[in-house]
Specification:
Pathway: Porphyrin-containing compound metabolism; siroheme biosynthesis; sirohydrochlorin from precorrin-2: step 1/1
Bound molecules: ligand SHN, 1,4-dihydronicotinamide adenine dinucleotide
GO molecular function: ferrochelatase activity; precorrin-2 dehydrogenase activity
Keywords: NAD, Oxidoreductase, Porphyrin biosynthesis
Number of helices: 9
CATH superfamily of the largest domain: NAD(P)-binding Rossmann-like Domain
CATH architecture of the largest domain: 3-Layer(aba) Sandwich
Number of domains: 3
Strand order of the largest sheet: 3-2-1-4-5
Largest sheet: 5 strands, parallel
Number of strands: 7
Domain Siroheme synthase central: 125-151
Organism: Lactarius akahatsu
CATH topology of the largest domain: Rossmann fold
Distance between the termini: 55 Å
Amino acid sequence: MSGSLLIAWQLKDKHVLVVGGGEVASSRIQHVLAAGGNVTIVSPSNGLNNQTRSLIDCGSENRVIFRDRTFVSTDLDGVDMVLTAIDDVELSRDIGTSCRARRIPVNVADDPSYCDFYFGSQIQQGPLQIMVSTNGKSPKLANIIRRRIEESIPKTAGEAIERVGLLRERLKERAPGVGGDISKKRMKWMVDLCTSWEIDDLALLDDKQIEKLLDEGWERNLVPSRENMAESD
Ligand SMILES: C[C@@]1(CC(=O)O)c2cc3[nH]c(cc4nc(cc5[nH]c(cc(n2)[C@H]1CCC(=O)O)[C@@](C)(CC(=O)O)[C@@H]5CCC(=O)O)C(CC(=O)O)=C4CCC(=O)O)c(CCC(=O)O)c3CC(=O)O
Ligand SMILES: NC(=O)C1=CN([C@@H]2O[C@H](COP(=O)(O)OP(=O)(O)OC[C@H]3O[C@@H](n4cnc5c(N)ncnc54)[C@H](O)[C@@H]3O)[C@@H](O)[C@H]2O)C=CC1
C-alpha cells in the first residue's frame, strides 16, 4: 500500500470553504484559522454547534464569513480549498465531484474516497507541528499514538525552535547570501550548534546570548558549549 505526501500546506491569505457547522466542521475551522487562512462557513444557523457559533462570533480579525443557508454550487467560486462536514453523504459526494472537476483540493469528512487529502491527529507547540496519519485506516489509533508522542517530546521544544529561529535570522543578517560557501558554512554551524546543545538550553537563549553566540562562536568559526557560554557571562 502506498502512503501520503505529508507536507506543511501554507494557507495564509487563502480562502477555505467549510460546508457544515457541527463538531467536525468546528475542528476544521480551528485548524484553518490557526494556519492563517480565511474561512467561509456555509450552514443553516440551527445546525451550528456551540464551538462553531463562538468561532463565528469572535470572527478572528475578519477572517470568518458565515452564510446562514444550505450549500449552493456558486459557493465554490474563487475558493482555494473545500472541506465538507455535513450529515448528507450524497451532497458531500456531489461537492467532492464538483471540486475535482474544478481542481479545487477537497476533504469530504464522511467519504475518504472523495478526499484529495486527509486530516491527521495533530500536536502544536508554537512553531512545532506534528501530524500522525494512519492513511485512513484508524483515526482513533492516530489519536492514541499522537498522545503518546505528545508525552515524549520535551516541553521546551516549541520555545527552543522559536529561539533557534531567531538566531538563524540574525546569522543570515550577519552573513547574508544564498548558496555557495556562505550557505555551506552557515548550515554546518547551525547543525553543530543544534546537535551539541540540549533542547532545554536552546530554549533559554535570550537576545543577548544570541548576539554573544554569534560574536564568540560564528565569528571565530566554533560552537561554544553551553558551559563555556555560561562561564563567560
Ligand atoms: C480518512 C479521514 C478523513 C478526514 O477526516 O480527513 C477520516 C475519516 C473518518 N473518520 C471517521 C470516524 C472517526 N474519526 C475520528 C477522529 C478523527 N478523524 C481524523 C481524521 C480522519 N478521519 C481522516 C483519516 C485519519 C488517519 O489517516 O488516521 C482525525 C485524526 C483528525 C481530524 O478529524 O481532525 C480525528 C482525531 C483527532 C485527534 O486526535 O484529536 C474518530 C475518533 C473519535 O471520534 O473519538 C472516529 C470514530 C472512531 C474511528 O473510526 O476510529 C469516519 C466514520 C467511520 C464510520 O462511519 O465508521 C470516517 C469516514 C470513513 O472512514 O469512512
Ligand atoms: N472525518 C472525521 O474525522 C469524522 C467524520 N464524521 C462524519 O462527518 C460528518 C459531519 O459530522 P458532525 O460534524 O458530527 O455532524 P453534525 O450532524 O454535528 O453536523 C452536520 C452539519 O451539517 C450542516 N448541514 C447539513 N446539510 C447542509 C447543507 N445542505 N448545506 C450546508 N450545511 C449543511 C448542519 O447544519 C450541521 O451543521 C458526518 O457525516 C459524520 O459521519 C464523523 C466523525 C469524524
